[in-house]
Amino acid sequence: MKYTTLGNSNLIVSRICLGCMGFGDSGRGQHSWTVDEDHSREIIKRALALGVNFFDTAIAYQSGTSEQYVGRALKDFAKRDEVVVATKFLPRTKEEIETGISGQQHIENMINKSLQNLGMDYVDLYIYHMWDWQTPIEDVMDGLNRVVKAGKARYIGISNCFAWQIAKANALAEKEGFAKFVSIQGHYNLIFREEEREMVPYCNEENIALTPYSALASGRLSRLPGEGGTKRAQEDAYAKFKYDATAEQDSVIIARVAELAEKHSVTMTEISLAWLLTKVTSPVVGATKLHHIEGAAKAVDLTLAPEEILYLEEPYVPHPLAGVMAQNRPVAAK
Predict the structure, then answer these.
(1) Other CB atoms within 10 Å distance of the CB of residue 126
(2) Do residues 208 and 181 lie in contact, with contact meaning Cβ atoms separated by under 8 Å?
C-alpha cells in the first residue's frame, strides 16, 4: 500500500479508502444489498492487513448500523491512532427546522450520535454529506468549527457540492477563522468525469483532497455487462438511475478497460482504479466481498502509460448530473 497526505491536513491516508456504505443491517435503511456484521468484519480485517488505514462511513448508512459495525471492528482489529475514520452528517430535517433547531445544534446532535455509534471519542474527518439549502452556510461552518474546537473531529470535509459552494464555504471560514474543508467527496470515475470541469482544477489549486465515491460506477467498471452479477447489481435501483441512461456510450469505455486488463493480465477493477489514482488523492471503494478490497489494493501498484490513459479517456462524452448532485439546487426550484 502507498500513502499520502490528505489535502491541507496532517492526516496520512492510504491511497485506497474503504467505503463502508455496503455494511449494515439490510433491513434498516435505503439499501437491501448490504452485508451483515460478520462479513463486514472480515472485509475490514482484510483491508487493514492490506495496509488500508482510511475508512469512510455515514450516519445515513443503514440507520447508523454501518457506523456501529465499523466502530466495533476497528476497536478489535486496529489501534485508534493508526486509522483515519471519516463519517458524514445529513442536513436538518423538516421537523428540526419547524421546531427551531439551529444548524449548529443539529451538527452537534449528529456528531454526538455518530461518535456513540462508532464507540469513539473523535473522528478524523467529519463530512458535510450534501448541501443544505435551508440552513445558512454561516451556521454550518460555525457548527463544524465548534465540533473541531471541541476535539470531536480533527478535520472537516464536504461531499456532493459544486466548486463554487466549497469555495464560498472556505472563503467564509477563512474570514471568520473557522476550520476549512480539506477534502471533497464527489461523484467521479472513468465513465462520469464531470468533476473535471471545475472541481478538479479548483482542488488542485487549493490542495484540497479529492476522495471520490462511486469509483467503480457501482461495479460497472469492474466487469463486462452481463458478467459476475451481484446482489447489488440486481437490487441497487439508485445506481441504475445514475448509469443506465448512458449505458450505450459508457460501454465503449468499459470495453477499453477490459482490453487493457487483458493486456496487463489484471482485473478491470485494477485498470479503472489505476486511472482514477492518477487524478485523485484516495478513491472511496466499496466492498461487499473480500476480492473487492483485494483488487482495489492491487491497483495502487499498477502504472498506466500516458497513451493508455488517453486511450481510456478519448471516448468520453459529457454526462448529465445524476443522483444527489442533480438535486443540488434551491428548494424553491424543485
Answers:
(1) 26
(2) yes
Nearest to 248 by CA among 189, 319, 313, 314: 319
Pairing of strands 12-14, 3-5: antiparallel
Among all residues, which ones are annotated catalytic? 61
Q: Report the SS3 class of residue 157.
A: strand
DSSP labels, 307-318: HHHHHHHTT---
Per-residue pLDDT tens for 127-162?
999 999 999 999 999 999 999 999 999 999 999 999
Which residues sit opposite 23 in a β-bridge?
35
Backbone angles phi, psi at 300, to 5 degrees: -60, -30
Distance between CA 158 and CA 211 in Å, rounded? 10
Query: How wide is the angle at C-alpha 330 spanned by C-alphas 328 and 331, nearest 5°?
Result: 105
Q: What is the pLDDT of residues 271-330, one digit of tens each?
A: 999 999 999 999 999 999 999 999 999 999 999 999 999 999 999 999 999 889 989 999
Per-residue model confidence (pLDDT) at position 322 = 87
Structural contact between residues 13 and 54, judged by C-beta atoms closer than 8 angstroms: yes
Instruction: Kindly provide the residue ranges of all beta strands, DSSP E only, lying in 102-147, ordered along the sequence.
Output: 123-128
